[in-house]
Amino acid sequence: GLLKRGITRVITPGTIIEEGMLQARKNNWLGAVFIEQQATSTLLQWGLASADVSTGEFLVKQGEGNDDLRQELLKLEASELIWGEPEMQGENPSWCPSNLYLTHVNKTPFTQPEAESALKKHFQLTTTQGLGLNECPLALRAAGGLIAYLKETKPNIQELDNDSSCAIPLDFPQICVSEEVLLIDAQTRRNLEITCTQKDGHFHGSLLWALDRTLTAMGGRCLRRWLETPLINIDEILA
Predict the structure, then answer these.
(1) For a tag site, which of 6, 26, 96, 135 has the least CB within 10 Å?
(2) Could you tell me if 14 and 29 are in contact, meaning their C-beta atoms sit under 8 angstroms apart?
(3) Do residues 161 and 170 make contact, with C-beta atoms less than 8 angstroms apart?
(4) Cβ-proximal residues to 110 (8 Å cutoff; 6+ apart), any chain
(5) SS3 of 78, please?
(6) Tens-place pLDDT, residues 57-70
(7) Residue 24 burial (C-beta neighbours within 10 Å; 0-12, 13-18, 19+)
(8) Using 50, 70 and 90 to split pLDDT, how confident is the model at 1?
(9) pTM given for the model
(10) Which residues is 46 bridged to in the sheet?
(11) Which strands sit side by side in the sheet containing 44-52, from one edge to the other?
């Protein structure tokens, strides 16, 4: 008989879910950034959302400053970053590391109404109040843009016909606060060889390689996250 033809899925670096194409002990992050330049300030304000569609982890953060955003992206090591701006000619913007895969998408999903609508639809909520993102409006807009991108690329090929969500089992957004962890810049991170060696960038020989005796991939990812963002509160460290 006749076969129905059409695009069922768009493969991108940040939406891969096949186990054979992923490193089990390292998150495959898809990032989304929203940037707003305030007229009264020379610093750019930004919101950053990151999700691992293979594990369901969903993190959001808001901050300011070109260099702070760049350091966050270097630490995240996202497989793909989406940005709601028309495609630019030449190199990535100054806040974006040159080795990062930057995908330009439509600006509309990053607007406040569209972002709130996408979040409410995906998590089946009547309001976004319970997500705790009202005090982080830029992070909310980045999260909404990320959800819209997932719905468009359809990484879950077993998506249901009903249009209630994009069928990706993401956790509720977890707000990351910079004041709770030690900020380590990219150069210091390389010098300390936390997750890769300074000479050739290999995992073998790094601090994480020496410490990792975890038995599961989930435990390996957790240990990596602890080393990359160490706590600074002595009580939490002791606990």
Answers:
(1) 6
(2) yes
(3) no
(4) 34, 84, 141, 142, 144, 145
(5) coil
(6) 999 999 988 888 99
(7) exposed
(8) confident
(9) 0.82
(10) 35, 63
(11) 102-104, 80-83, 30-37, 44-52, 57-64, 174-175
